Amino acid sequence: MMRRVFLIVILLVAVLAVPEYTANPSGEGDGTEEFVCGGACHGDPGLSAESLAQLTITPDRSETYVGGPLSVTVTAQDMQLSDRKLAGLFLLTSTHGVGDTPQADGWTILSDGAGGSGNYVEQRVTSSDGSASVTWALRAPSVEGDYRLITAIHHGGDASARMAVDEVGVLITVGPVPENLPQISAEWAPPTKTLVGKEMVLSVPASNSTSVSLEWTSRGAEGSVVMTQQGDAWVGSLPTALSATEIQYRVVMTNEIFVESSAWITLSVEQQDILPNAWAFRFQSIAIMFVSLALCITLNRRFGRPAKAGTSEIKSTFNQPSTIPMAPVQQVVQGIDMADPRRPLSWSDEQWVHYGEDYLKGLGGGV
Amino acid sequence: MVEAGTFHAVAVELTVGSFLLATTATLLRAMMALYPRLGDKFSTSMATGLDGASLCGVIFGLLVVPFTIITGNLAADGGNSMTANKILLSGLCTGLWLGFLHGRLTLGIGLWNSKKLVILQSLIALFACQVVLMLSSIGGTLSRGETLTDLIGLPHLENSPDVGMTGSVLMFLFSSIALVTVLFMQPKSKRIVDE
C-alpha cells in the first residue's frame, strides 16, 4: 500500500514539476514558420502569455501587380523581453495556424532582411528604445486580387513565452501587369548573403528594359551602378564590403514609358569563420590525449601493483636477516666442480662459478 | 549527394551511444564489485556480460572516433572557438577511453576484484563520458544554437585558449616524452588473476 502511495506521489511531483510553458530559450532560428511555429517554438500559441509589444506593419506601396515588387517593414516595441533579449517576428496572412505564410498565398519572399528568405526572423534587441524591425522584400502572387498581410511576434519575458498579433495588418491590391512594363523574371532569386571581401556580381534577367541600374545603400552611404546587358541578363557588381555589414539594394529598370524598381533587398555580408592555427589546436589535442592516456596508465599500474611488491614490504624483509634468501652463488657452486679440467686457465673462480655451467653446456658435455 | 554533416550526425550517434553503453555497463559492474550483497543477487554470467559490454562499447566507440573527427572536420564550415574546444576535448576523450581500455586489457578481468581499481576505472569512465556529453553539447550549440545542457546551466565553452603554434608543438613534444616514459620505462603491472 505504502509503495503505491509513494509511486503516485512521485508521479504527481513529476507531472507538477513540468514547467507551464516550454520554449526554445535560444530561439528557433530564422526560416519559414506558420503561426503555430510548427509547435516547436512556444508550443501552441494559445499557451503563450500576452505580450505588450506594439506592432506596426508598413508597406512601401498599397498596390502592385502580378509578380510585382513589394517591401514590408514590421516594427515591434515595448515588449517585455527576457535576459536573452531575443524576439521573433512573423509576416503572415492569417492566424489559422496552417497555410498562413505569405508563400502559401502565392507571395515570394526575396529577402527577409537577415540574409534569408523566410517569413520568420529572430532579432536580438539591442537598440536603446527596445524596438525590433524587419523589412521583407516580396514578389506579388501570380493571381490578381486583394491580399492581407499581418504580423506577429513571440518572445520570452518574465519567465513566460509571450505572443502578440496584429490581425488587422495591411491590405495589398495585386492588379494586372501594365503593358510594356519593365520586369524581372519570376525565376530570379536575388542573393541575400555573401562573405566579407568577396565581389558580389549580380545577373538580373530583366525584360522590357532599355537600361538597368543597381541602387544600393549601406550605413548611410549610397550609390548607383549601371548594369550592362549580356544576352538576356543585365550584369553589374555591388561594392565589395571589407567588414561584416548589410547592404540594401534594388534593381531599377527603365524604358521609354516606365521607371520600375524591385523591392529593397538586404544583402547580409558576413565574416567567414576561420579557425586560426587549426594545426596548433590539433597538436594540443594530441598532447592532451597523450597526457590523459599516460595518467590513466600510471594510475592503473600504481593501483594494480600487488601489495607484496611494495617498498615497505621490501624494507621489512631486509631488516630481518633470517629471512634473507640464500645467495644464488652457493647453489651454483654446489653444481659445478671448481677443479674441473675443462675450466679455461685464464678464468677466475668467480667467472667459473657464474659462467662455467653455460661454458660446459656449450662444449656439449654435462656439468 | 549526402553531405559530411549527415555522416557526422550518424558517427556522433554511434560514438555517443557506444561510450554511454560502456559507461553504464562499467558502473553497473562496479556496483556489483563494490557491494558484494548486490553482486550475490546476480549470476556470474551477468558480471561477465557487463564487463564484456563495457569492453565492446569502448572498442567500438574508439573505432568510430576517427570517423567522427574526420566527418566533423569536413562538415565544419571554417571554424570558431567552439570548434577549437571540440578539437581539444576530442583529444581528452580519446585519451581517457584509451587509458580505460589499456587498464582493462593489461590488468585483465581480475581488476574487478580490486576495490581501488574498480573505483579508478569507474571514475575514468564517468569523466570520459562527461567529456563526450560536453562534446555533444558543443555540437548541438553549433548546429542548433542551443543544447540540452542549457537546462542545467552548463557553460557554452565559447572561449578557447590559444597558446600558438610554438606552445602547441612544445606541448606535443613534452606529452610524447611523458607517454614514452610511462609506456617503456615505468614498471609494468601484472595481469590480475580472476579468483
Write structural notes for this entry.
The complex is a heterodimer of chains A (367) and B (195). With 367 residues, chain A is an alpha+beta fold. In chain A, 20% of the residues lie in helices and 35% in strands. In chain A, the strands form five sheets. In chain A, strands 1, 3, 5, 7, 9 and 10 form a six-stranded mixed sheet that branches. Chain B has 195 residues and is mostly helical. Chain B has one domain. Helix content of chain B is 75%, strand content 0%. In chain B, α1 (4-34) packs antiparallel against α3 (44-75), α3 (44-75) runs antiparallel to α4 (81-107) and α4 packs antiparallel against α5 (115-144). The longest helix of chain B is centred in the first third of the chain and has 32 residues, at 44-75. Chains A and B meet through α2 of A and α4, α5 and α6 of B.
Unreliable runs of chain A = 309-324
Which sequence of SSEs, written as H and E, runs from N to C of chain A? HEEEEEEEEEEEEEEEEEEEEEHHHH
Structural class of chain B: mainly alpha
Task: Identify the biggest protein-protein contact and residues per side.
Answer: A-B, 39 and 57 residues
By DSSP, the count of extended strands of chain B is: 0
Q: Would you count the extended β strands of chain A for me?
A: 21
Whole-number tally of structural domains of chain A: 4
Biggest sheet of chain B: strands, sense, closure?
none
CATH superfamily grouping of the largest domain in chain A: Immunoglobulins
How far do the termini of chain A sit from each other?
Answer: 85 Å
- Counting DSSP H or I runs of 4 or more residues, the number of helices of chain A is 5
Condensed summary:
The complex is a heterodimer of chains A (367) and B (195). Chain A is α+β, with helices and mostly antiparallel strands and 367 residues long.
